[in-house]
């Protein structure tokens, strides 16, 4: 999860499942690889990761923890959305991901899951739709407040949408939350706030 949280897509795409792990634990690695491959627009790697993910779902269905398999649909749908994005099928990606975000909003998410709505916002921002991205980041921040990537994404989206007041607000909140942080995003936030 660390590689995904820090948007280290190359390392996330290269993750290997832990040796001897249960299929549902191995599936998490393949899910992460698919998400990363989507961000890198590496459709072949995303397809491969999804094939492995689906094999792990099937193995989970046949194993002693079969009840877990039904919860793995969310990951599959997220991975498929990122595959569509990698293939340049933006409308397909935007058809697949919002229902996952809506489902998480209604049912909640696992404690180590990434917010699907934040993923949707990331995708919209990468598609050059900052106004829509900002709206999704703001929704995500209501259910997952003060997340680093949610705040930074909202600030970037606001900046791209020429909403300097909201950009300042989100950059300032990010810096307040991470006073002693050293991530490059924080340096960027400090620089942009200093200009205003």
Give an overview in words.
- The protein is an all-alpha fold and 196 residues long.
- It has two domains: 1-114, no CATH class; 117-196, Tetratricopeptide repeat domain (Serine Threonine Protein Phosphatase 5, Tetratricopeptide repeat), CATH 1.25.40.
- Helices cover 72% and strands 0% of the residues.
- It has eleven helices and no strands.
- Helix 4 (43-62) packs antiparallel against helix 5 (73-86) and helix 8 runs antiparallel to helix 9 (148-160).
- It starts with a helix and ends with a helix.
- The model has no long low-confidence stretch (mean pLDDT 94).
Pick out its properties.
0% strand; mainly alpha; 11 helices; Serine Threonine Protein Phosphatase 5, Tetratricopeptide repeat; single chain
How many domains, in number, for the residues? 2
Strand content: under 5%
The share of residues in helices is over 70%
Individual helix count: 11
What is the terminal-to-terminal distance? Answer: 34 Å
Helix/strand/pairing category: mainly alpha
Number of strands: 0
Rg, Cα atoms, Å? 17 Å
Whole-number mean pLDDT:
94
Q: Any idea what the shape is?
A: elongated
The largest β sheet comes out as: none
Q: Uncertain runs with pLDDT below 50, 5 residues or more?
A: none
Instruction: Note the run of SSEs as H and E.
Output: HHHHHHHHHHH
């Amino acid at each position: 999860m660390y590689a995904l949280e820090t948007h280290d897509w190359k390392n996330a795409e290269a993750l290997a499942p832990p040796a001897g792990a249960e299929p549902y634990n191995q599936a998490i690695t393949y899910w992460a690889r698919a998400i990363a491959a989507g961000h890198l627009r590496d459709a072949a790697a995303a397809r491969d990761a999804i094939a492995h993910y689906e094999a792990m779902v099937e193995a989970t269905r046949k194993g002693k923890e079969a009840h877990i398999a039904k919860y793995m649909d969310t990951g599959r749908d997220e991975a498929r959305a990122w595959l569509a994005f990698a293939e340049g099928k933006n409308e397909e990606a935007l058809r697949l991901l919002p229902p996952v975000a809506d489902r998480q909003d209604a049912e909640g998410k696992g404690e180590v899951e990434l917010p699907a709505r934040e993923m949707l916002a990331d995708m919209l921002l990468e598609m050059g739709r900052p106004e829509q991205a900002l709206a999704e980041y703001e929704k995500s921040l209501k259910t997952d407040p003060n997340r680093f990537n949610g705040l930074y994404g909202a600030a970037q989206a606001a900046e791209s949408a020429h909403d300097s007041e909201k950009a300042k607000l989100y950059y300032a909140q990010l810096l307040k939350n991470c006073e002693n942080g050293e991530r490059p995003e924080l340096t960027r936030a400090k620089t942009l706030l200093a200009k205003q």
